[in-house]
């Protein structure tokens, strides 16, 4: 599977919609789009995970790196719309304590 990345920017706000799988194969593509944004000063980054149906530890690593970069640059990172499957990865690794992951779980019954 591939990963489709849509990026919309309005001033300092970046809305990134992801569709597909985030794994060792697709993570470099996500890193290429996301990391330059996270390194800019005072950006607001919102990532829509609603259409992400699979993510492995490589994907988690991308988001941890992005979070660290945004803190360093004075920017913010918010993840939204994660399915229960994807959200569970963040929960079992303890990343919900450090990454802003909204409670708007979509696409699956609890």
Q: Compute the number of structural domains.
A: 1
Strand order of the largest sheet: 1-2-3-4-5
**Tell me about the biggest sheet?**
5 strands, mixed
Task: Report the span from N to C terminus.
Answer: 25 Å
What are the salient characteristics of this protein?
alpha/beta; five-stranded mixed sheet; globular; single chain; 3 helices; 110 residues; Transcription Regulator spoIIAA; 5 strands; 34% strand
State the gist of this model:
The chain is α/β, with parallel strands linked by helices. The chain is built from 3 helices and 5 strands; from the N terminus they run ββαβαβαβ.
Describe the model.
The two termini are 25 Å apart. The protein has a single domain (3-101), classed as Transcription Regulator spoIIAA. With 110 residues, the chain is an alpha/beta fold. The protein has 3 helices and 5 strands. It has helices spanning 27-38, 57-73, 84-92, and strands at residues 3-10, 13-22, 44-55, 76-80, 100-101. The model is unreliable at 105-110 (pLDDT under 50). A 5-stranded mixed sheet has the order 1-2-3-4-5, sandwiched between helices. Helices cover 35% and strands 34% of the residues.
Topology of helices and strands:
Layout: E1 3-10, E2 13-22, H1 27-38, E3 44-55, H2 57-73, E4 76-80, H3 84-92, E5 100-101
Parallel strand pairs: 2-3, 3-4, 4-5
Antiparallel strand pairs: 1-2
Helix pairs in contact: 1-2
């Amino acid at each position: 599977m591939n990963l489709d990345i849509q990026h919309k920017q309005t001033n300092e706000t970046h809305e990134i919609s992801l569709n597909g799988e985030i794994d060792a194969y697709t993570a470099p593509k996500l890193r290429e789009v996301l990391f330059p944004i996270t390194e800019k000063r005072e950006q607001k980054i919102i990532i829509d995970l609603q259409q992400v149906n699979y993510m492995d530890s490589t994907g988690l690593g991308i988001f941890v790196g992005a979070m660290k970069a945004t803190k360093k640059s004075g920017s913010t990172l918010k993840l939204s719309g994660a399915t229960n499957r994807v959200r569970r990865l963040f929960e079992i690794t303890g990343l919900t304590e450090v990454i802003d992951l909204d409670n708007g779980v979509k696409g699956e019954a609890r």
